[in-house]
Amino acid sequence: MPSSSASQAPAPDPDRRPPGGPVLQDSVTEAISAAFFEELASVGYARLSLEAVAKRAGAGKAAIYRRWPSKLEMTVALVSAVAVDAPEVADSGTLRGDVLAFLTELAGALRHRLISKIIPDLVAEGTRNPELGQALFTAVRDARRIKATHMLERAIERGELPADVDREFALDLLAGPLYWRLAVVHTPTAPDYLDRLADKLLAAFIA
């Protein structure tokens, strides 16, 4: 789900002008976006206030409302932008290489000082706030899973996986163990952990 560029989320509106409103300044949008992620990591979604975000950004509250009409929409837009902006898994030429690259990128994101706090909070909040949960799961989960699916499809084309491989099961396995270890139980990993995990995942895919 997440990228280490969380504090540099792109603006949600490409034409930079709300209907009937002034042109939005990129520098202000970037300051608000960075302040949003810092505040979200600090206090969590439930206690997040747009006033605090504006103060941290050195902007007026009106500047936020010119970009996003509510805390919910601001959260979904900025978090989704980071997720969608995450790079595709580079084609290493082998499924194992691709899986290891995927795990390395995911581990880096889950260890990020902001993301490591934001993701567990949003997952928990999503169970209490169905509207937030559904919006984030649709925008973030689906975007990430589509990119991971491309990795599986490459492996099928190379003959490393059967055409009838259970894609949904494989996608669940890709992120699940590492997320549990780093984001839920916060257990340190040995230097060879990702290599060993990649081997176990490949064995599970073709079992």
Tell me, what's the shape? elongated
CATH topology of the largest domain: Tetracycline Repressor, domain 2
Which structural class do the helices and strands define?
Answer: mainly alpha
Number of strands: 0
Helical stretch count? 9
Tell me what the structure shows.
With 207 residues, the protein is mostly helical. It contains nine helices and no strands.
Defining key terms:
Tetracycline Repressor, domain 2, 2 domains, Arc Repressor Mutant, subunit A, mainly alpha, 207 residues
Quick synopsis:
The protein has about 210 residues and is mainly alpha-helical. Helix content is about 65%, strand content about 0%.
Topology:
Blueprint: H1 26-43, H2 50-57, H3 61-65, H4 71-85, H5 95-110, H6 115-128, H7 130-157, H8 167-184, H9 193-205
